Every structure is written in C-alpha cells, then in structure tokens.
Amino acid sequence: RNAGGKIVVAGAAIKPGKPITVGHIGKTMLIGLPGNPVSAFVTWTVFGRTILDKLAGMTPPRAQRRHVVTGHALYHRPGRCELRPANITGHDPHGHEIVSAGEATHSARLAPLLAADGLLVIPAEATQIAKGEILEFLPL
Question: Tens of pLDDT along the chain (140 residues)?
C-alpha cells in the first residue's frame, strides 16, 4: 500500500494456502504466496497459474479439474476447502478414476506433493468422505 498499490484479495479459505495476496500497483499485477512450500505451490497452481494463463490469453487453462472416485474414507476438519495431494490408483467398474490421498495435508511436507498425480478437492463443509464418493481432482 505504501507504494500506491491496491490489494484485491487478502487471503482465501483454502488449505494449504490461506495467506495469499493478489493486488496491483498501477498496471502491474502482484501475487503474494505463502511461505511454506506446499502452500506456495497450491496457491500458485490454483490462483497464480490461472491468472497468468488468462493474462497470456490461454484458453482453455492448462489443467482442467475432473471428477474422481475416492478409494477410501477420508476425514476433514470443516471450515476451509482442502486441496490434498492424491494419487490415481486405478479405475472402478464404470471407468472412473479412483484416487487415494493421505490423512491430512501438511504445508511444509514436500514428499506427498512430489509423489502426487494431482490435488483432491475436499469441500469446506465436509467432515467425512465415504469410500466411493465423487470429488473434484486437479491434475498436476
């Protein structure tokens, strides 16, 4: 703000990555990412890359979300949408991709993200996801 900029977004209800900032100084867009590596990657993937693709005129964007089936039950603390690293483990009898995800997302643990095929999108209001439920998946 001291440089004459304007903050347009100050935080997002996602995990990991809540402390993202989007703004501009004049015509220059600024994106402030969180400090933890997984948080920074997730917010860049969801917000930064999407903004950059739009500014570059890319249509459609690179990664398209798609629906997948959960391979096991998942638990989630409600309040923020969670993007949890996940792996495609096969297909169900109907041809839908089955995914497996860890028990939680840790914003400083890179190993699960490095091994992931994508990010499983767990809705903010969910507390429990049953095996076989359909969720969104953002491929990496």
Answer: 577 889 999 999 999 988 899 999 998 999 999 999 999 999 999 898 888 888 888 876 666 889 999 999 999 999 999 999 999 999 999 999 999 999 888 888 888 888 999 999 999 999 999 999 999 999 98
pTM for this model (two decimals):
0.88
Residue 87 near residue 117 (C-beta atoms within 8 A): yes
DSSP, residue by residue, the chain = -TTS-EEEEE--SEES----EEEEETTEEEEEPPSSHHHHHHHIIIIIHHHHHHHTT-SS-SSPPEEEEESS-EE--TTSEEEEEEEEEEE-TTSPEEEEE-S---TT--HHHHH-SEEEEE-TT-SEE-TT-EEEEEE-
